[in-house]
């Protein structure tokens, strides 16, 4: 048996997640930027708090994998608050 390969998410989400979508997710879930960073870090994110602050401003994209981890953190906050997860368009 060969090594286990990780697969991309099976849904049709596109990345990067728009900044305004992440900001809205934080507002709706009541998650502060610091709390979002801790959640992102717990899920395997590697960027600093300063880099997260920059990412939350328009025009500062991250690599797709980092954005995936960041959006998962935002999704978890939304879901734990009884809200639906982020919706991403397939158009990008």
TrEMBL record:
| Source species | Geodermatophilus normandii
What is the protein name stated in its UniProt record?
Uncharacterized protein
Would you say which domain of life the source belongs to? Bacteria
